[in-house]
Amino acid sequence: MKSLPPQQGGSPLPRADDAAAAPPTPEAAPPDDGRRWAGDPYDEGDEVLPDDPSVTARFSAQDGEEAWLERSQDGTLTGWLRDPSGQVYRYSDPDAWAVDVDDAGMAPAGGASGPSADDEANDLEDPEPDGEDGLPDELEK
């Protein structure tokens, strides 16, 4: 069996057991971009606005943040969030949007799931019973 000539000017060839003994090199961690929002920055300027009819929920925080949830005609939910600087974030995952809204301590500010002036006015009205005993007509004998 022939042996390899020694390397010149370098270290000896690594052995298989040297690789196992070497500590693993740490992979570079992605840099922290300083954002506190999980959504993707959205700079297109054509986002659905909070007062659009397709918005099903609106939330706001005291420091000027606002968030809204859009339901498209095909049923897809898209979350939106605007921070105090005006930067808009888009969420394709409504669960991630809900976590950010909750973690920010936002409160309902209208939309289909939030209070509105019409809802409060309807709560004050005293509904009239359907029949003499208050049952719907189809349940009366």
Structural features:
elongated; six-stranded antiparallel β-sheet; 141 residues
Topology diagram in text:
Elements: H1 16-21, E1 40-42, E2 55-60, E3 66-71, E4 77-82, E5 88-91, H2 94-103, E6 107-110, H3 117-124
Antiparallel strand pairs: 1-5, 2-3, 2-6, 3-4, 4-5
Largest sheet: 6 strands, antiparallel
Helix-strand topology string: HEEEEEHEH
Sheet with most strands: strand arrangement: 1-5-4-3-2-6
Determine the structural class based on helices, strands and strand pairing: alpha+beta
Which word captures the global form? elongated
Into which percent range does the helicity of residues fall? 10-25%
How far the N terminus sits from the C terminus, by CA atoms, comes to: 106 Å
Number of helices: 3
Count of individual beta strands: 6
Computed Rg:
30 Å
| Average pLDDT, all residues | 75
Instruction: Show unreliable segments.
Output: 113-127
Structure description:
The protein has helices spanning 16-21, 94-103, 117-124, and strands spanning 40-42, 55-60, 66-71, 77-82, 88-91, 107-110. It is of the alpha+beta class and 141 residues long. It has 3 helices and 6 strands, in the order H-E-E-E-E-E-H-E-H. 14% of the residues are buried.
Short description:
The protein has 141 residues and is of the alpha+beta class.
